Amino acid sequence: MNIPRASLLFPHLLFFSGCTSDPQSALNADGPSAMELRELISLFVAVCGVVFVLVMVVMTWALVRRRKPAPGRPQTERSMGRAVSAAIVGTVLVITFLTVSSFYATRSIDWREADPATVVVRGQQWWWKFTYLNADPAKTFQTANELHIPVGTDVRLRLVATDVIHSFWVPNLTGKQDLVPGRENGLTLHASKPGVYRGQCAEFCGLQHSHMALLVVAEEPDDYARWLEAQRNAAVEPADGDAAAGKLVFMSKPCAACHTIRGTAAGGTSGPDLTHVGSRSMIGAGLLENTRGSIAAWIADPQTLKPGNNMPLVPLTSEELQQLSAYMSELR
Q1: How far are the Cα atoms of 169, 227, 251, 280, 303 from residue 317, in angstroms, in the given order?
Q2: pTM for the full model?
Q3: Residue 217 shares a structural domain with residue 131
Q4: What is the mean pLDDT of the chain?
Q5: Which residues, other chains included, contact 188 with Cβ-Cβ below 8 Å and sequence gap of 6+?
Q6: What is the mean pLDDT of residues 144-161?
Q7: Contact 180, 199 (CB under 8 A)
Q8: Residue 183 domain flag
Q9: Is residue 101 part of a domain?
């Protein structure tokens, strides 16, 4: 059975097409820094490909060429010496070229200066805290695991860590940057078009490292301004009976000692700010889609879903769990 050669390429093309449409792919660049890095990747692949082909050609030629009796050993040694010297010089030139190219490309990750710094990113085991700064302290607020930015604008991030080294990486928009305890690093995000981009901690930080994801939501400036205004507001009062009862459950349990809900007496700081938790796409730093069922499952047994995380098991009756999940879902 004859199979056209072109058909054999189809699976490969299908595979590589996924690299350019993934919400977490360095090849699907939607920001200036990411575009620089994509070009750097392409350059490395091209140069290494050329080097590989040249090496294979030389090896093939050495294996198949017809050897002639050498007129004298010194002449053969001189020829080999020249070949080795040429290879060393070529290697040094190639490595120098790639090193310089890498330096100028990676420098673009942090060369833009948005003034003033707008968001403090704090990494901790195993979730992300985002603090949106404002000259008016009353307009400063916190959210978790979901970073919103305006399209077409440089957004300056201040990166800090609470416990161990983490690494902030949103491959569609920029390169990696570490968060180191006791040291502040900077990073500039810039999205060229609206979209939702997945990020990940890229430095092993413990048991749940793989479950420390984040979303960057790039919005048109008007939509971003509306989101900012909504996030600055205090929590909404519950509208139905279950949610109202859930608020009482929240305040009577240890929840209020660990979490903040602005507009209430809950002012804990060890866990994420839950003022508008119902408006987020995911919970558990990308672990679950944000639905009422997922919220209930997380509250009921966080250690089974994400072993080792810092949220304790809170004893609740089934009725209290239903009420509390209703309250959390209404916090939008």
Answers
A1: 40, 35, 15, 26, 18
A2: 0.79
A3: yes
A4: 85
A5: 33, 109, 110, 111, 112, 113, 114, 154, 155, 156, 157, 174
A6: 93
A7: no
A8: yes
A9: yes
Helix (H), strand (E) at residue 103: helix 73-107
Q: Are 205 and 166 in contact (CB under 8 A)?
A: yes
Residue 17 inside a domain? The answer is no
Domain containing residue 195 = 119-231
Of 198, 231, 264, at which residue does a domain stop? 231
∠ CA 328-132-248, rounded to 5°: 20
Does residue 127 have a cis bond before it (omega within 30 degrees)?
no
pLDDT in tens, 229-248: 999 999 988 888 889 999 99
148 with 90, same domain?
A: no
Tokens 């002639």, residue? 68
User: What is the total residue count of the chain?
Assistant: 332
User: For 112, phi and psi rounded to 5 degrees?
Assistant: -80, 145
Looking up tokens 């010194």 gives: 74
pLDDT for the residue 218: 94
Where do we find the tokens 């479950």? 211
Q: How many domains does the chain have?
A: 3
Residues 103 and 124 reside in one and the same domain: no
* Residue with token string 């000259």: 135
pLDDT at 200: 94
| Rounded-to-10 torsion of CA 51, 57, 62, 68 | -120
**Domain contains 188:** yes
**Phi then psi for 189, rounded to 5 degrees?**
-100, 140
Tell me, what CATH number does 173's domain have? 2.60.40.420
> What pLDDT, on the 0 to 100 scale, is given for residue 89?
84
Supply the pLDDT for residue 227.
95
Q: Are residues 99 and 159 in the same domain?
A: no
- Of 20-24, 61-65, 68-72, the range with the highest mean pLDDT is 61-65
What are the tokens at 246? 């859930």
